[in-house]
Amino acid sequence: TQHYRITLLPGDGIGPEIMAVAVRVLKTISEKFDLSFEFQEALIGGAAIDATGEPLPAATLETCKKSDAVLLAAIGGYKWDTLPRHLRPETGLLGLRSGLHLFANLRPATILPQLIDASTLKREIVEGVDIMVVRELTGGIYFGQPRGIFTTETGEKRGVNTMAYTESEIDRIGRVAFETAQKRSKRLCSVDKANVLEVSQLWRDRMTALAIEYPDVELSHLYVDNAAMQLVRAPKQFDTIVTSNLFGDILSDAAAMLTGSIGMLPSASLGASAPGVYEPVHGSAPDIAGQDKANPLAQVLSAAMMLRYSFNQPDAATHIEQAVLKVLDQGYRTGDIMSEGNTLVGCQAIGDALVAAL
Ligand code: NAD
Ligand code: IPM
Ligand code: MN
To answer: Which CATH class is domain 106-261?
Structure first.
């Protein structure tokens, strides 16, 4: 029996609701595949602020470092939106990513055949979409210095953030992207704003230089404004996309809508050695929190990614993904993916159906 220690970070809003479903799924899969999971729950985000005064308590980071993988739901909410930046839930999440050196964020956007009618785009546009966004996660404008709100000589305030990348930061995410593309359709599109930004010029230069080492991968470049447009116009032209932290944040939400709902998109945040963090692309959805309306499938599919990437248990991961398809085949839908002829159910009912399907 393989034994794995998993840190659970339910966080805020719909976080605890969707985490409960993922844990039920993991418990069921552990019996079926003779795996042993030891769950350790820890505080992050608003929940951590309320309990300890900080969004990422040192104990949480320590617990995560000692585990084999971290399953995170979502953080944030209106209640904490007016706190000073260092005390915001989002700062806790960014601290977790940088504290574990998780520089590579893999965000797959795949349209499931069952959800084609849930997409806001036409069937022929989204049918067959299968994109992997490789987002840089510990650099760029999210972490660049200087940053802050300063007072100018004339006494007005000036907000400052800095978009910066070193060559080594670009190269390491570039390598992850080229290797990811090698395992897929061998097409990599690097997205930047090299027509305006020096940091993007360096990004493009390094991606072009790296391409020599991966002759089997076809590298192309797009400016981010055009990439956003192309994603909605003709998404099937994309296979693997590599981009910086901020552009990847925005493009992955756009890519989510190709699949029907942001409630479907999982992600893996990986570093060179530390435990990976598996989290949905969406946030804490405070508008529907506590109402049993959340779609737990992004969370469940994130757990499947954990089994595949951190535990090397592809069969167990595939089994979870098959259960998701089966539940959708049975017609069960949360509101975000509801379409004609299906049955509207809540978050917990999806959990029941998943456990039955497993
Ligand atoms: P959001 O992703 O939380 O919600 C956007 C919209 O999508 C909302 O209408 C919401 O109801 C819906 N939605 C999201 N997930 C869903 C799900 N699983 N099922 C059904 N509907 C779903 O984005 P937001 O409203 O901009 O942000 C809310 C809070 O979440 C903010 O505090 C933000 O900082 C935080 N946030 C956290 C993460 C994270 O923890 N990784 C990611 C994004 C946003
Ligand atoms: C995400 C979120 C986070 C980000 C926020 C909550 C810090 O939007 O994971 O996509 O911007 O990375
Ligand atoms: Mn985001």
So the answer is: alpha beta
